[in-house]
Write a structure and sequence with these properties.
8 strands, eight-stranded mixed β-sheet, alpha/beta, about 15% strand
Length: about 270
């Protein structure tokens, strides 16, 4: 399985100039305080429930993560919606990457495990919760670990699971995006399961916004502050039609070609 050539550590061209200027599209301090209190309580309760969550069967865990994600979005005052046919089993879900909120809105609508960078595992509360929910962690600084990560994703989707990944490899502002890198598409090729491209769009009062973007050298706290203060923030998830890997043949580079074709097609669908 030749995937080493597709390891990436890309940098987004989005910077501070992509973020919105100060405006009146924010809520009062009282509402911000309420959002902090409610969201904090939800996360604390979830963290305390980890021992119970770990004992749940897969269906129960999916219901719990969906309820948790929706509670967090409600606590933050964010509306969300989904259109298209979201995969319920045996699929690789590939999405554009704008914000740390991407993970939450996907879990609110799809029965998916997530692929996340290794550093998330060490985050207080969130790391332990992510591991309990079956997150697959990838160390992008170690090329030799990539094949084993692809194999782990392949095993999950081949067994009927759904895994969500962000193949751009980094976050963009949402008005522009990057190219999907083909490495993780190899898992779908090897498992013989479809790829479902997903577009995440952020808006305020129906107008596309970059207020929730988490880009450049910005800290998570700075991004969180903007989200907490944002008025009428909504996130829409659009699932595009499935892409199916080409049938395998005897050509030595058939798999490499197939994953690259899938990555290009998914990029075009999401960008459109």
């Amino acid at each position: 399985m030749a995937v080493m050539d597709s390891l990436w550590l890309p940098r987004s061209t989005c910077g501070a100039d992509c973020l919105p200027a100060a405006s009146d599209r924010h809520v009062s301090r009282l509402i911000v305080a309420k959002r902090i209190a409610v969201t904090g309580a939800v996360l604390l309760l979830a963290a305390l429930s980890v021992p119970v969550l770990a004992l749940l069967p897969q269906r129960g865990l999916i219901r719990a993560q969906r309820a948790l994600a929706r509670s967090v979005l409600a606590g933050l005052g964010i509306k969300h919606s989904a259109t298209g046919r979201i995969p319920q089993s045996g699929a690789l879900l590939v999405a554009n990457h704008v914000s740390w909120l991407d993970v939450i809105v996907i879990l609110a609508h799809a029965p998916a495990r997530l692929l996340a960078k290794r550093e998330v595992r060490s985050w207080p509360l969130i790391g332990r919760l992510a591991a309990t929910l079956g997150t697959v962690f990838v160390d992008r600084s170690r090329p030799k670990s990539l094949p084993s990560t692809v194999a782990e994703v392949r095993g999950n989707i081949a067994a009927g699971g759904v895994v969500a990944v962000f193949p751009e490899g980094t976050t963009w502002c949402g008005r522009m995006g990057g190219t999907f890198r083909p490495a993780m598409f190899q898992a779908a090729v090897d498992a013989g399961v479809p790829v479902v491209p997903v577009r995440l769009t952020f808006a305020q009062s129906g107008v596309v916004t970059t207020v929730a973007a988490f880009i450049g050298d910005e800290t998570l706290l700075a991004s969180l502050k903007r989200v907490l203060a944002a008025r009428d923030l909504s996130i829409s998830l659009r699932a595009h039609p499935k892409l199916h890997p080409a049938p395998c043949d005897s050509h030595p580079h058939a798999h490499t070609h197939s994953r690259r074709v899938l990555a290009r097609a998914a990029t075009a669908m999401v960008a459109a």
